[in-house]
Amino acid sequence: MNKNEIYTVDITDMNNLGMGVCRIDGIVTFVNGAVVGDTAEIKIIKCQKGYSIARTEKIIRSSEMRETEHVCQKTSSCGGCVYGLIKYEHELEIKRNQVLFEMKKAGLDMKVEPVFSTGKTSRYRNKAQYPVSSDKNGKLISGFYARNTHRVVECDDCLLEPKLFSDILKSAVYKLNSLGLSAYDEESGKGLLRHIYLRQGQKTGEVLLCFVINGKSIPNEKRIAEDLAEEFPQIKSIFINVNREKTNVINGKEYRLIFGKETINDILCENIISISPDSFYQVNRDCAEELYKKAITLLDLKEGESLLDLYCGAGTITLAASRITSLKRIIGVEIVPAAIENAKRNAEMNKIDNVDFICGDAGDIEKIMRDKNISLDAVILDPPRKGCSEETLKYLVKASPKKISYVSCSPDTLARDVAFLLKNGYTADTVYPFDMFPRTGHVESVVCLSRE
Predict the structure, then answer these.
(1) Would you state the pLDDT for residue 66?
(2) Nearest by Cα to 285 from 314, 253, 259, 309
(3) Which of 39, 154, 170, 181 is deepest in the core (most CB within 10 A)?
(4) Is 47 designated active site?
(5) For residue 20, what pLDDT is reported?
(6) Mean pLDDT of the chain
(7) What's the chain's Rg over C-alpha atoms?
(8) pTM of the complete model
(9) CB neighbours of 326 closer than 8 A, spacing ≥ 6?
(10) Max CA separation in the chain (angstroms)
(11) Which residues pair with 30 in a beta bridge?
């Protein structure tokens, strides 16, 4: 097989990047623009040891799984909606099989339930981070990175996000262009504007806007902020974030408020949630509400018991547990100080007094629990994509809570961590997937583990 060769193939599978999969002379080939069930003419664009990559030149016979309506025109170039070319019911089945595959790969014989969905596949995101670049005339442009690159693809309106976001983005870029601002260049480390970042409280409608810059300030920044807030009354907070590091990390550590209030609010599981620029908050509020209810009710908590919410963020699960149950004590632990301050403020706003929030690393959880003299009946885990550290898992085995509800955005690290807990005295038999990120390759899951 050589680059630029043309083949006619049957697409037999899809991967979690949304690429069709076929075999040519026994070699696995990943095909951009093809979906399972297609017969297509493809062109080889890259040959690697053991696999190749191709693009679709022509669809000879279209799959019944291929989406024919509401297809975003940027699907082929933007790296976001990897499942934008297939019908939604098939996307849910692919995601279920993805979770099932990771469980089996880890040696786990577990039932995987059908993927829960709210049924909403567009306009569900409450957060967007837009990279900024320059066009050939030196003007600022903003959108999304093309797949596997840092080349910015302009996007007039992303179908996953509120229409309001694209309107604010276009107006902000127009106003910043009038100042003659430069875009940050990753290679040279020069230029000012790096990203434009938006969040929204979906129940309240409140919007937070943040400019990420490679410098101290934006010229006339307060006037720009006031103009944007006047044009879009939904904007309640505008920040400058300073990131001078030569890094792919989007936000720096320094935030400076230039308009409005320090946080915006949303409502989740009947609680008012205060959201700062750097606090974790699920991007799909409606699905998150159902996910949290499931994670909590699976624990079957009894009145007077205690609960540890590890990786608690702004306290959304902690406060939901307080609302849903009659627990004696709930402890939330999170490493980000601003998130803990948000969590404390959230508890105060909602008049919830049986929760405590502690700023600390999940890897140091044994010391934290010992210093606070806390015993555990149950634990909720909601770690980042990399999963739990071995130190955290070993402590949980040692502390021996009766039940652990594990929430994960990564099926492979979930399977790894569940396998560890099953080898150390816990049992579990079912995974409950949730489609928190429709049209993308990601899937959230919950597993409840019980002590034998």
Answers:
(1) 93
(2) 314
(3) 181
(4) no
(5) 95
(6) 93
(7) 24
(8) 0.91
(9) 303, 304
(10) 68
(11) 21, 53
- 3 state SS of 104: helix
And the tokens for 85?
């070319």
Among 158, 269, 312, 409, the one annotated catalytic = 409
Q: What are the angstrom distances between the C-alpha of 232 and each of 169, 199, 206, 224, 384?
A: 11, 14, 10, 12, 33
Degrees (nearest 5) of the Cα angle 228, 229, 234? 120
Q: What was the pLDDT predicted at 211?
A: 98
Length, in residues, of the chain = 452
DSSP 378-423: EEEE---TT---HHHHHHHHHH--SEEEEEES-HHHHHHHHHHHHT
Our measurement of the distance from residue 444's CA atom to the centroid of its chain's CA atoms, rounded to an integer in Å, reads 9
Q: What is the pLDDT of residues 198-256, one digit of tens each?
A: 999 999 999 999 999 999 999 999 999 999 999 999 999 999 999 999 988 999 999 99
Please report, for residues 247, 300, 429, the alpha-carbon distance to residue 449 in angstroms, rounded to integers and kept in the order given. Answer: 38, 12, 8
Among candidate residues 112, 218, 204, the one with its CA nearest the CA of residue 172: 218
Residues 6+ apart with CB under 8 A from 81: 18, 72, 74, 75, 159, 160, 439, 440
